[in-house]
Amino acid sequence: MKLTEGLSGRQFALLAAYISIGDSMLVLPSIPANAAKQNAWISAIIGLAAGMIVVWLISAAGRLYPRMTLMQSSERLFGKWVGKAVSGCFVMYLFLSISAHTREIGDFMTTQMMPETPIQAIHIMYAGIMAMAARLGLETIARTGEFLFSFFLLFLIVFILFLIPEIKLNNLLPVWDGGLKPILRGSITMTAYPFMELAVLFMVIPGVRKPEVMRSNMVKGALFGGIVLLSIILLSILVLGPDYASRSIYPSYALAKKISIGKFFQRLEVILAFMWLLSSFIKSAVFFKVLQTAFAQTTGMRTDKGMELPFSMLLVFFALLISSNILDFHEVDQYWPYMDMTFSVILSLALLAAYAMRRSAAGRREELGHENKGKD
To answer: Which residue spans traverse the membrane (predicted)?
Structure first.
């Protein structure tokens, strides 16, 4: 069973960009700002550089068997039972990630835009939309993202240009205050949330028409997403100041409220909300579809169709169970990056090591075979 066929290199790159930006556009800037204060932009640069290494590592592991999903390649490299265990853990990781994305949507909508709406109603609507997207298939999701990318790019440019008059360069001073330790601590989440979650593309790589261009497109998409997040983190410090940016749960949304051009263009939060909801939805829809296929392949089902309703119902339940309130939810920042690291860096290294060991063993067997033939 294959996930999809017919993704172009451009569509794959855009999926990588959407996943990199995703929910991070709204919630990420406050985390490095809390750790590194006015030096959060330096943390973002370090995180971007480290993230490119992570992306290269994921793409290298994905190129081992470009026509196999992670479930299939892990069973081939690790054996049936170890491969099944890896696949099961990856399924749980996908499910927890989508639950967290759904909870973020609910928290934002009920605290910033629709405070009188029950969070359960937001979760039900969002899970239903994800289920519909997954039902239509990953290629449809990719085409939707491709069609809407021009609007995303236009709104991003408008968002940045309208904030230029609000910039205060003094907010970057003093540079390097506090030393290297807080800067490195702030760079961890900049590496984890945008780039390590690209491990989901292990399941998408088999659907790319030309596997040979997969790595370059993946790097291009991730780099674009990283530059977008770096820009928003820098703007958060320049416009809001390090103290406000670190205290705010949604600093980029606060940025949008600062836009004021000639007392005519004001409070353009809808620009930021559109960009965030679009990138978050594409990311969540990809995770949802991949979850279906990963679960089906792990359990040996013939098809992944028909699981949209059960998974969406479970997501509505676990999105509430994952934390008691918005403040407790953001405490997961302390350990979530390490879970992302497990299924991106560690898993990729394990796949590459297993592949190298099998190649080495195959080479030794071939040498022994030639020696035996020579003796005969």
So the answer is: 12-28, 40-60, 81-100, 120-138, 147-167, 187-209, 221-241, 270-288, 309-329, 335-356
Q: What is the pLDDT of residues 240-280, one digit of tens each?
A: 999 999 988 899 998 888 887 776 666 678 888 889 999 99
Per-residue confidence (pLDDT) for residue 370, from 0 to 100: 57
Residue whose C-alpha is closest to residue 62's, from 284, 352, 353, 362: 352
Task: Count other Cβ atoms within 10 Å, centred on residue 105.
Answer: 24
Phi first, then psi, for residue 178 (nearest 5°) are 100, -10
Q: In three state form, how does the secondary structure of the chain look?
A: CCCCCCECHHHHHHHHHHHHHCCHHHHCCHHHHHHHHHHHHHHHHHHHHHHHHHHHHHHHHHCCCCCCCHHHHHHHHHCHHHHHHHHHHHHHHHHHHHHHHHHHHHHHHHHHHCCCCCHHHHHHHHHHHHHHHHHHCHHHHHHHHHHHHHHHHHHHHHHHHHHHHHCCHHHHCCCCCCCHHHHHHHHHHHHHHHHHHHHHHHHCHHHECCHHHHHHHHHHHHHHHHHHHHHHHHHHHHHHCHHHHHHCCCHHHHHHHCCEECCCEECCHHHHHHHHHHHHHHHHHHHHHHHHHHHHHHHCCCCCCCCHHHHHHHHHHHHHHCCCCHHHHHHHHHCHHHHHHHHHHHHHHHHHHHHHHHHHHHHHHHHHHHHHHHHC
Q: Going from the N-terminus, what domains does the chain have, and what CATH number goes with each?
A: 9-375 (1.20.1740.10)
Please give the pLDDT value at position 281. Answer: 95
Tell me how far apart the terminal alpha carbons of the chain are, to the nearest angstrom: 45
Number of Cα atoms under 13 Å in the Cβ half of residue 102: 35
- Residue ranges of the chain with pLDDT lower than 70? 1-5, 263-267, 329-330, 333, 363, 365-376
Nearest to 319 by CA among 144, 175, 123, 164: 123
